[in-house]
Amino acid sequence: MQPDCPSVLLIYTGGTIGMIENPETGALETFNFDQLLRHVPELKRFNYRIASYQFNPPIDSSDMEPSLWAKIVRIISDNYNQFDGFVILHGTDTMAYTASALSFMLENLAKPVILTGSQLPIGTLRTDGKENLITAIEIAAAKHPDGTPIVPEVCIFFENELMRGNRTTKINAENFNAFRSFNYPPLAKVGIHIRYNEHFIRKPASYPLKPHYLFDTNVVMLTLFPGIQESIINSVLHVPNLKAVVLKTFGSGNAPQKKWFIKQLKDAAERGIIIVNITQCQSGAVEMKRYETGLQLLQAGVISGYDSTPECAVTKLMFLLGHGFSLNEIRRNMDSDLSGEITKED
After folding, report:
1. Looking at residue 175, what is its pLDDT?
2. What is the CA radius of gyration of the chain?
3. What pLDDT, in 10s, does the model give residues 272-298?
4. Residues belonging to the active site
5. How many whole angstroms separate alpha carbon 131 and alpha carbon 162?
6. According to a count of CB atoms within 10 Å of the terminal CB, is the N or C end of the chain lower?
7. Torsion of CA 202, 197, 87, 8, to 10 degrees
8. How is the beta sheet containing 7-12 ordered, strand by strand?
9. In 3D, which of 37, 49, 45 has the Cα closest to residue 2?
10. Which helix (H) or strand (E) holds 275?
11. What whole-number distance in Å separates Cα of residue 143 and Cα of residue 237?
12. pLDDT bracket for residue 33 (50, 70, 90)
C-alpha cells in the first residue's frame, strides 16, 4: 500500500444515513453504496482507495444483535491487512451498543474503526450524513508521519466530535449532536481542522488482531426507582437461565436499604448471578464505599461498574459470559479496564 494513498473500507449495515428520498413518491429508500461517489462526489477529492461492503438487506439498528456484531468483526478481520481503516455506517439507536461490543471483540486492534451515521438521510438537503461520513473517512485514514494510525481504536464520530466507542451513549433523538461521552474527553474535535487529543487516545496494540465472536445474552438491565416492589425484583432475579444483571442505582451507586432487597441480591449472587452496579446518572461513577447503602451492596456480592455506560456494561457482560470464563474470572474482568471503558478508582 502506498503511504500517500490510504485505503478505507466502508461497511454499511443500515440506518438513516443510507437513505435517499424517492423524488416521485417521497418515500425513503436505501441506495446502493457501489454508487457512493455519485451520491457523495466530495469523496473524489480524497486521494484514497475506498471500497464498500453492504449488508443485504440493510439492518434497522433496532434489530442489531450479537450475530450481526460477529458479522461486522468477520468483515474487519477478513479485510484487516488490506485496509488502513474502517468506517461502519450504522443506525443511531443502537450505535453505542455496537461500538462498545466491537471494542471488546476486536482484541489487539491497531487500526481505526469509526462508526458514524446521521439524523437525516444522506439524500436530503440539510443532511448531517455527508459531513459525518466524509470526516469519519478522513479520521479512519489519518496517520502520523511515521505511518502509524492516529486513532487505533473503536470510535463514534458524530457532529464534530470523535468519541471512544465504549464511552458513548445516545442522548438526543432530534438534534444533530446525538451522542455524548460524559465520563471521558473527546478524542478529537472537528472544526476547520481536526484537532486530536492524542494523550487521550489508546496506543495501538503490538500483537496481531484477535477477533472474538462469542456472546451470551442471558443478561438483564434493572433500573431502580422509589417504590419498586419485591415481587418485581424477585421476578427479574429468577428469570430462567439468567446469568448477569446490570443494576442501575441512584447517584453514586446507592439503593434501598430494605432487608428484602439486600437479601434478594445476596441470594442471587450466591446462585452465581453476576450483579454489576452502575449509576442512573449520565455523568459520574459508582463509589460503593462512599455511603452505607453502597457498602451493603458490596457485602451482598454486587460489584462496581465504576463509570461504565449502560451500553458498555451490558455488552461487556455478554462478551465475558460468551467466552465461558469462571465467575471469578468474570468478576475480575468486570473490575478491569479491558479496552479503555472504565476509569478505576484511585
Report:
1. 59
2. 21
3. 999 999 999 999 999 987 777 778 899
4. 16
5. 13
6. C
7. -90
8. 49-54, 7-12, 85-89, 113-116, 154-158, 161-164, 188-190, 194-196
9. 49
10. strand 274-279
11. 48
12. low
What is the spatial distance between Cα 225 and Cα 40, in angstroms, rounded to a whole number?
A: 47
Q: What is the dihedral of CA 116, 120, 122, 123, to 10 degrees?
A: 170
Beta bridge partners of 86: 9, 113
Q: Which residues of 105-127 are buried (b: 16+ CB within 10 A; e: fewer)?
A: bbeebbbbbbbbbbbbbbbeeeb
The model carries a pTM of 0.93
Lowest mean pLDDT among 133-147, 173-187, 203-217, 251-265: 173-187
Q: How many CB atoms lie within 10 A of CB 53?
A: 19
pLDDT, the chain, mean: 90
Burial of 323 (0-12, 13-18, 19+ CB in 10 A): middle
* C-alpha distances out from residue 15 to 117, 119, 144, 170, 177, Å: 7, 9, 32, 15, 17
58-85: burial string, b at 16+ Cβ within 10 Å, e else:
bbebeebebebbbbbbebbbeebeebbb
Angle, nearest 10°, between helix axes 310-322 and 327-334?
150
**Number of H-type helices and E-type strands within the chain:** 9, 18
Q: Tell me if residue 14 falls in helix, strand or coil.
A: coil
Q: Cα–Cα distance between 65 and 63 in angstroms, integer?
A: 6
- Phi, psi values for residue 298, rounded to 5°: -55, -45
C-alpha grid cell, residue 74: 468477520
Whether the pLDDT of residue 231 is over 70: the answer is yes
CA 140 vs CA 9, 12, 111, 229: distances in Å:
9, 15, 8, 48
Cell of 338: 479491558
Phi-psi sector, 315: left (phi>0), alpha (psi -120 to 50), beta: alpha
Q: Is residue 128 a contact partner of residue 176, using CB atoms and an 8 Å limit?
A: yes
- Residue 271 is given by DSSP the state T
**CA-to-CA separations, 331 to 218, 276, 320, 334, in angstroms, rounded:** 16, 9, 10, 5
Burial degree of 236 (CB within 10 A; 0-12, 13-18, 19+): middle
Domains parsed from the chain with CATH numbers: 7-211 (3.40.50.1170), 219-334 (3.40.50.40)
